[in-house]
Structure formats: structure tokens, C-alpha cells
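Thread: Modeling a multi-component assembly for a lab meeting

Hi all, long-time lurker, first post. My supervisor asked me to bring a structural picture of a complex we are working on to next week's group meeting, and I have zero experience with this. I have the sequence lines for every component (726 residues in total). Could someone generate the structure of the whole assembly? Inputs are pasted exactly as I received them:
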Amino acid sequence: MSDIALDPSLGSVDLTRQLCNIFSVSGEERAIADAVEAVLAERAPHLTVTRDGDTVIARTELGRERRVAIAGHLDTVPVNGNLPVRDERDPETGEAVIWGRGTVDMKAGVAVQLVLAVELDDPAVDLTWIWYDHEEVSSDLNGLGRALRNRPELFAADFAILGEPSNGTIEGGCNGTMRALVTYAGKRAHSARSWMGVNAIHRAGAALERLSAFEAERVLVDGLEYREGLNAVRISGGVAGNVIPDRCEIEVNYRFAPSKDLAEAEGVIREFFADADTVEIVDRAPGARPGLDAPLAQQFVEAVGAPPVAKLGWTDVSRFSGLGIPAVNFGPGNPLLAHADDERVPIAQIEATERALRNWLNR
Amino acid sequence: MSDIALDPSLGSVDLTRQLCNIFSVSGEERAIADAVEAVLAERAPHLTVTRDGDTVIARTELGRERRVAIAGHLDTVPVNGNLPVRDERDPETGEAVIWGRGTVDMKAGVAVQLVLAVELDDPAVDLTWIWYDHEEVSSDLNGLGRALRNRPELFAADFAILGEPSNGTIEGGCNGTMRALVTYAGKRAHSARSWMGVNAIHRAGAALERLSAFEAERVLVDGLEYREGLNAVRISGGVAGNVIPDRCEIEVNYRFAPSKDLAEAEGVIREFFADADTVEIVDRAPGARPGLDAPLAQQFVEAVGAPPVAKLGWTDVSRFSGLGIPAVNFGPGNPLLAHADDERVPIAQIEATERALRNWLNR
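Re: Modeling a multi-component assembly
Sure thing. I ran the full set together rather than chain by chain. Output:
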């Protein structure tokens, strides 16, 4: 079934190296999904395994009162001379790290999950392990979203943990994100007679000045502070070097606290750009409340020990919270190093994450 | 020598139609230059003809005290379903017009010149007729510039008339033009943590606001009013929908009165964008003073009758004034219709231009 044999018995640190070295850029997850499926078939008879495309879902069916879903994505962003991974010392902290593509985002998290999936045949709660494809590309390709649509019955749970890098602490919920195309119109004219036209690029200046002066809110949601952001991420306009431009387009990205729903976020954008000719929402994803008031979440926070913080980037926890399942991010690795060419994960953080998760699931 | 026979004996209106219907988009002037050279060889034994690429120079050598150079370009901008030309009524004024590509810019002017070149074998001044290639494309290809470099001795003159469309009135001199690339730098960051970056597009906002508020000067030069303009003609910036952009580039076009030299114009741009990270001048062409105090110019103004006005767009008169030769624009056609898909020239204006020029040259 798989040409590549994974060996979780060597522990999650070694398994991180094994997983990273299976090339698995988005769209090419077949080999790694095959390898995960094979190791479960061989070593985890206590799990019922389902395959959906390159997503692997493995469930205990122990009849426990509560069920926890634990998910991680198998793909990485493109490699940039940073595979195979190697052992190094962190240039800033001196810690022992595994260096290379995927170490942070998120093969170390997947390794911890896979070690525990094989090991824990009698956990305190029923478990649904999910390893999925296409997380690093556009939302409509996302393997977790696809599997949720295809097999919703497999995803029922009381709590969910996404193994996205969070420095081994709990990062609750996530900000929402919305992108809009904002256009300013003008009237073309020869630039030798500019007063006969209306310069659309000049018209956009006021909006950029407002963005520059804008102080994004810090919003407390369920005790965690979410910092927002409203930014122009692209701008374009112009016809030729001697023509007054009749169109200027600004692409805006709004990151908003999970206390706002999509309609409220859109309202903020439309009000901010009330002077524009058109405002078109081109991408939207709701935030997720941290959900830390759920009993299982509180127990998990206690087990991990460190105080939880807000997740600022959008993650797939929002797909769980959209189903009414409280969900948090919990994985080894510094999220600021995700996608970086010098991506690297501290070995001690992989081990600590594994310990915390094992202790809680066995309690 | 030429497959296409021009017949100037039918008059400048008919010759306009003949010239327009010889396809002559910039770079493809061979056929029309051949036709002009052939008609001069056949019908203008009083002219000494020189060919430089697709530029034709034809001179009287009568030993007159003064010499006037009269020039027009043979090329057009690309055709857009507007050839062959046809006779129509102007939709706005009801006048009889010739409609189609090249009628305004500037086959009607060339036709008037060619009729008079063949006819005037005993003018009051010596004449240098110049029909040249590559006016509608980048300045380094310009046939007038090339011929001036190759055969400067042919261009000595006391006064020059460029047949660019000017509604049959004298448009004196021209504004200068300068383009600059102005860049604002920033620092990339993930848009989920925008405060860790510096948004270059936001930084450009203040400059656009200043441009928007800017009141360009009106400058009197030798009695004519030149209206300036400072405009963003292009803008671009941005990396991806989730990245704070680290660079925003504005292309600016400054049209400045001929009382300013290139260094002064550059100074205006650099002062205006003092907050930018880089300002690179990418294109520059000096203006031309109207030179209406020259005796020949004053006689020409009297002969035409209508009061002269300032030429706002940049034209090749600047190449003559750069040689110290006073030069004006004088040709049939509304310059606002040049390059337009509904380019059209009033027949009465072609005839009036021909009359005024003939009367003056015969006086």
C-alpha cells in the first residue's frame, strides 16, 4: 500500500524527521497519506480508519461519554532548499532544533498525534484523529472541509484540538479574515491636459491616509485579547505614462475578532470605504471564539498548565467552531517561523507537547 | 520607386484622403515615404531631396536671406477599424469632415505641406520641407531626431513650423514633460500580525493626498499661458492577499511650462516627493518657449490672423527650439481628437490652413 514505512516507535521527535522528509507540498499528499494509513493498519488495530481523498480519519469506538477530535494537515508550502531536514542548534536560543520545511507547519504536530494515535488504545475519551490535505492553499480545496462535507457523521465531537504551531501553549479560537476589492473611478484624459480628466489614483489617496491613521481594535473575547488589522495588501491603477488614470483598485484585508460575525465585518469595511465607487467582498472566513468555557477545554487548559492566548491568524479551528465544537490550537513550533525558509522546531517543545497531550488523554 | 502614386494636383483635401489610406503605423512608413519621395522627384524639380531612413527632406536653394523649416510626421498610431477614411458630417458641429485614422494626427497637415512644396517654386524665403517617421513611439526612435543627428547641416533655419494639429491656429512652443518612479518602502509581515510590518501602500497615501490637493501653476511665457500638471499615472504594490506590502511604486508625470529647464522640473518633483524612499527620473523632454518675438514668427502670426495660444502637449517643436530655432505648431485638426477612434478633420480647416501658409510663404 505504501512504499514509505513510518516508524512511530522511535518517538515523535524522530517521527517528525521521517514525516518532513516525505515530500508533501499541497496537491502532492498521496505518498504521506498512504504512509499514515499504512502505519495505522499495521500498528493501530484499535482504530477504525476511513480514507477520503488524501485525508485519513481514524476513530476509537470505545463508547466513552465524550469524544475529542484531534486534527493536523499533512501538506506543506513549497520547499525552498530546506529539505531534507537536519538537526541543528537554534541560532538565537542555542536549543536543539530540527531545521527545515514542514518542521513547524506542521509535521511535528502530526508526529505527536500519530505517536499517540498508535499508542493510546484505552484513552479516557473517545478519539477522532484526522490528518488532512490541502490546508496551505485556497479554502475551497481544504481536505478537512471536503471530508466534513462528505462524511459529517465522522466528525461529531465535544471538543477539538488542531495541532497548528502554537509554541506548545493553547491558542484559543482565531480571528476572522475578509478581503475586499475597493475601486475608485476617474475619467481618462491626456496628461498634457489633466484638468479635463479625473485622476482615480489621486482619489484613492484619502482612503490610504485613513488606513495609515487607523488604529485597529484590541477585543477581549472569552478572556483572550484579539488584535485586529485593516490593511491594503495590493494596489493597482494606470493606463499609460501620458494618460490620467480612470481606475484605481485597492485590495484590502480585514482581520477581525471572533466576536464579530461576517456581516458585521463587512459593515466595517463598507463604512470605512464609503467614498469608494465599488466595494466587492472577494473572500471571507469567520473567526472562532476560543470556547474555553467548555468543560473539556478547561480540563485541557489545566493539563497544559501555561495560560492560553488568542490565535490571531485564521486556522481550521473555525471549521470546528462552525459546527458548534469548541476548538483550540495546540502544537509545537513558533507560528512566526511557519513558511519561513529557516523554519525550525525545538526538540524539547515536541516532547513537551507529546507529554501534555498524553497526560490529558490518559487522565 | 513607389507603387503608390500621390496626386497633389487634386488639392490638399483630396491628398489628405490619399495619404490617410496608405497604411503607415509607426515602423511601417516605408510605403508612404517612398510615395512622397516619388511625387517630389516627378513634380518638384525645384527641390533638392535627401532621404534618411523613412524621413524625406526637400530643400529650395534660392539664396534667400531667410529659411523656414516646415515639418510633419508620416506615421500614425495603430488603426482601430477607422481606415479607409470616409467623408462624413461632424456629429457635433455638422461640418463636412474627413473621418478616420490619421486625419488629425497628422495627414491633413502633411497634405497641406506637400501641396505647397510642389507648388511653391519661388517662395519669399528658402524652404526646408521635412516629412519624418516614428513620431508616435518612444523618443529615441524619432525620425526627426535621427535625421538631425545624421545630417545637421540640412536643418539650419531661422524659423520652424511643425504641422501638428492646432485647429488651424498657431500654438506656440510646448510644455516640457518628465516622468518619475517614486517608491515607498515598508516591511513585510503576515497580515494576521500587521503591526509587525510597515505597510508601504499606506505610506504612499500622503503623497496621493498632496497630488489630489495640488493646484498646478499657470505660467505666462512670452505672452502665452502654459498650464502645468502633476499626476500619478500608474501605481502598483502588493505581494499577496495575506502579506503586508513592502513596496509601493507610483509613476508620476509632470508637465511643466517652457520657462523651467529640466533641472528645475526635476527639483519640483524631488521636493514634492521628499518623503519617498527613492525618486528616479525615467523620461524627460524639455519644453519649448514659443519664440513669438522672432521677426518671422511675428509676420506669420499676422498672416494667420487668429491670436496664438500655448501648446500644452509636448511636440517636436522642442527639437527645433533646442537648436535655437523658434518654432510653432500650425496644422488643421483638433488635437483633442488625435489618437481617438473617431478622429476627424474639418475640410474647411484644411483649406484655411493651406491658404494661410501659401499667403505667408508668397508674401
